Amino acid sequence: MAAEGEYESILCMKPDVNVYRIPPRASNRAYRAADWKLDTPDWTGRMRVTAKGQVAYVKLEDKVSGELFAQAPLREYPGVALETVSDSSRYFVLRIEDDNGRSAFIGVGFGDRGDAFDFNVALQDHFKWVKQDTEFSKSAQLGDSGPKLDLGFKEGQTITLNIGQGKKRDKPRPQGAGGFGLLPPPPGGKIAPPPSSGSSNHNIETDCLLELDSSNSNTVVQSNASSDLWGDFSAPASSVPQQSQPQNSGNWIQF
């Protein structure tokens, strides 16, 4: 039963529906609409499908006055209270109940196939919501009974946040085959090949000779300018007596 205080919502309403008296079921086989007197319905009116809580109600009412003819409470679908027939999608078997608890099975049919489809979908959507609501209630009860995770700070517990003080990591330099770091070449430049050992020695000798020549030239100029003070040292090289070279050169090693 629906709890008191819950509001009643309308799920579906169809203005034209037929009601038939059906023979009792002789076996466990499904109902067939062909066994009914489809040309002469026993009652004609409108159908209003409502929901109050988790229970759906199929109400058969008079078209003009709205007086209730019969109603069937549905607590599940498909189920015993509402069954489909095996030979048509427009007819159903409905179990109606009165206030005294007495029940009976009647046949219900729609003239339009679309009305039967809307009736079927409205009940499916309602009981789909009922199933979800039941599962949510069960999960909520299990969550309340289970241990709760305490994420609060304990007494005296603090937390430190370092914002914007992260250390910058140096990018590793590329290493050569020997494991020593090499500087990258300048952009757009070319690296000259290293000079050979022979050319380096030749350059060193040339630089030394140039320095000696420049120093000799300076010495000559200065000696000429100060010939009065250093006359003894300004004599030309031709006036200096040349020493005779030894005749016997066999004792010297020739380089």
Automatic annotation (TrEMBL):
InterPro entries: NECAP_PHear (IPR012466), PH-like_dom_sf (IPR011993). This is Adaptin ear-binding coat-associated protein 1. It comes from Perca fluviatilis. Pfam families: DUF1681. Transmembrane segments: none annotated. It is found in: Cell membrane; Cytoplasmic vesicle, Clathrin-coated vesicle membrane. Keywords: Cell membrane, Cytoplasmic vesicle, Endocytosis, Membrane, Phosphoprotein, Protein transport, Repeat, Transport. Residues 160-204, 219-255 are annotated as: Disordered. One of its GO terms (biological process) is endocytosis. Residues 183-196 have a biased composition (Pro residues). It comes from the Eukaryota. One of its GO terms (cellular component) is clathrin vesicle coat. Involved in endocytosis.
